[in-house]
Amino acid sequence: MTTTPARLAISVAGLRKSYGDQVVLDGIDLAVPEGTIFSLLGPNGAGKTTVVQILSTLINADGGELRVAGHDLAIAPDAVRAAIGVTGQFSAVDNLLTGRENLLLMADLAHLDRKEGRRRATELLERFELTEAAARPAMTFSGGMRRRLDLAMTLMIRPRILFLDEPTTGLDPRSRRDVWQIVRDLVGAGTTVLLTTQYLEEADQLADRIAVLDHGRLVAEGTADELKRQVPGAHIRLQFATQAELAAAARALNLDGPGNDEDTLTLQIPGDGSTKSLRALLDQLDAHSIEATGLTVHTPDLDDVFLALTGHGN
Amino acid sequence: MSSYAIRDSATMLRRNLLHVVRYPSMTAGVLLIPVFMMLLFRYAFGATLGAGIGTGTGGYINYLTPGIIVLAVSSASVSTAVAVNTDMTEGIINRFRTMAIARVSVLTGHVVGSVIQTVAGAVIVTGLALAVGFRPTAGPAGWLGAIGLVVLLAFACTWVSVALGLLSPNPQGASNSPLPLALLPFLGSTFVPAQAMAPGLRWFAEYQPFTPVIETLRSLLLGTPAGDKPAIACAWCAGLGVAGYLSSRALFNRGAGHSQ
Questions:
Q1: What span, in angstroms and rounded, lies between the C-alpha atoms of B32 and A239?
Q2: Contact list, B92 vs chain A (CB under 8 Å)
Q3: Where are the alpha helices (DSSP H) in chain A?
Q4: Which of A159, A180, A204, A189 is CA-nearest to residue A301?
Q5: Which residues contact A58 (CB under 8 A, 6 or more apart)?
C-alpha cells in the first residue's frame, strides 16, 4: 500500500538559525505540498519571520536542508527567486511612485513585455480595487490600500510559491477579509502559499495545514481540526448571580470539582452544546428552581490549542 | 541572471530618475552651495583675490569657475548618500532582493541616476558662470576633455557616496558622512592656488584628490599649464571609483540590509 506523495513546493529539514548566543530557529521541519496553504502560527518572536526570510533567500540559514520549488536554497538561490513572491508585514512599495508605476516597475523587473505588463497592471488594479488611486503616489495610500498594492506587486511576477508574512497585521476587518479572499483565489488557481500569522482565526480560515511555532521550535502540526482535537472538548458554562445559587446548581448537577469557580460564579459542565443536552440541563435547573443568569456554549478553538501547546496565551 | 544586468539597471535607473523628476527639491538644494560660493567670490571677494593672485580684476571668475564646477560635483555626494540610505530603509529593497534580478542593478540604477543629476548640475553651474563673465579659451577638444573629466569625477564621487550611504545607520548619518568629501574642494585650489596657503595646509592642498582635478579642468578650459596633474587626477578618480564600487557591492551583499 503506497500512495504517491504530492509534490512538495517547500521542504525543510532541520532548519537552524542563531544570532550570536540567541537561538532563533532550533531544528524546524516543514513539508508544504504544491497548491496548498500552510500556516506558521506563533506569537511575536517565535521565529516566523525568520523562516520566511530564510526561505525567500533574504538571509542564510545556519543549517538544514532547504528546498523551495525543487531547488536547493544554498545552491540555486536565483532559481528559487524566479519561483517565489514575498509580501511581508512591512510595506515593500515604492512610496514615491504611483500605484500603477509600482506595478509597471515589477513588470519590467519580471521582464514582461510592455504590452503584457500594462494589461496585467490594469487587471490587478481593478481586482485589488485600486483603479481610482492608480495615479496617486503610494505614500498617500491608507494601510489597507498599501497592503493590497504590495500584494498586487508580488502577483505581477506570477509567483508559483507565495510567502505571506503576517499579511493582515494592522488591517481593519474588511481589508483582512479582502486579503483572505485574494489568497483563496490564488490557491484555487494553483499557487502554493506559506502564511505566517499570529491570528488564530486567520490560520483557521485559510490554512490546509497549520504548524505552531514557539521559541524557535514546532510544537504541533496538523489540520485545524486535528489540532483542536488535542485539547479538552466542548463544555457549557453557566453564570449565576450568587454563591448560594452556584452551590445549589453544583449539588443539583452532581458537579463539585474544578469546573466550579466561586470567584467568577460560573459552573463548567462537560457537554457538546447540542440543543438536546442544553434542554436537559435547563430542565434539571428548573426542577430545582435555580436560575442561571447566563449560559455560553464553548467549543475548543485554536486559542485553546495555542494555550495548551505553548503554555501561554497569544 | 547576469544577462539581464543591463535591462534591470535601466529599469532601476528609470525608477531613480522618476524620483528626481517627482521630487526636484533635493537636487535643486544641492546646487545652492556652489552657486552661492560662485556669486560670493565673484562679486564680494573677486576683485581683491584676483589682484592678490595676479589674475587681474576681471580674470578671477576664470580662475574660480573650474573649482566651482568640481565643488558642484562633490557637493552632490550628500544627496546621493541620503537617497541611497533612504532607499535601503524602504521595504522595497528587500523585495528586490527576493526577485530574480541582477542584484547590482539596484546600485547601478542609483549611480547612473546620480551621475546624470550631477553632470546636469555641473552644466547649470557652468552656464551661470558664463553668464557672470567666465570666458574659457578651450576649443572643442578642451571642452570634450573637460566633460570627460567631470563625468569621471562624478562616477568616482557617486560610488564613494553610495558606499557611505550604505554604511550609515540612518539618513541623518548619511547626510553627514559625505561632508568631508563635499568640502574637500574648499581646501584645494578652488579659490586660491595651493602655493598661496600656509605650509601645512599647502601640503594638504597639493596632495588631496581635488586639487589635481581642479588644475586639470583649469588647464582644459583655460589653457593653463597642467604638468603631471591630468594623470594624477585620473588616477585619483579611478582609485576612488573602484574603492567606492567594491565597498558598495560588499555592503549591499552583506545581508538583509540594516532595515532589520
A1: 75
A2: 92-94
A3: 48-55, 77-81, 99-109, 114-127, 143-156, 173-188, 200-206, 224-229, 243-252, 275-287, 302-310
A4: A204
A5: B94, B97, B98, B256
Residues of chain B in contact with residue A109, where contact means CB-CB under 8 angstroms, are: 8, 11, 96, 99, 101
Going by the DSSP 8-state scheme, the letter that residue A138 receives in this structure is G
Position A175, amino acid? S
Task: Kindly report the number of other CB atoms within 10 A of residue A69's CB atom.
Answer: 19
Domain boundaries, chain B: 2-253
Class of domain A8-93+141-229: alpha beta
Which residue is it, cell 428548573? A286
Nearest CA in chain B to A76: B100
pLDDT digits (tens, 9 = 90+) for B190-242: 888 888 888 889 999 989 999 999 999 999 999 888 889 999 999 999 999 99
Choose the mutation target among A87, A89, A97, A109 for the interface with B, i.e. most B CBs under 10 Å: A109
Q: Which three cell numbers stand for residue A146?
A: 498599501
Contact B256 A96 (CB under 8 A): no
Residues 6+ apart with CB under 8 A from A55: A10, A12, A66, A68, A73, A84, A163, A194
Task: Name the band, by pLDDT with cuts 50, 70 and 90, for residue B259.
Answer: very low
What residue ranges in B28-176 does DSSP mark as E strands?
Answer: none
CA angle, A91 as apex, A58 and A190 as ends, to 5°?
A: 70
Which of A179, A145, A181 is closest to A165 using CA atoms?
A: A179
Segment holding A213, helix H or strand E: strand A209-214
Please give the pLDDT value at position A13. 95
Residue A97's alpha-carbon distances to A126, B9, B143, in angstroms, are 18, 17, 37
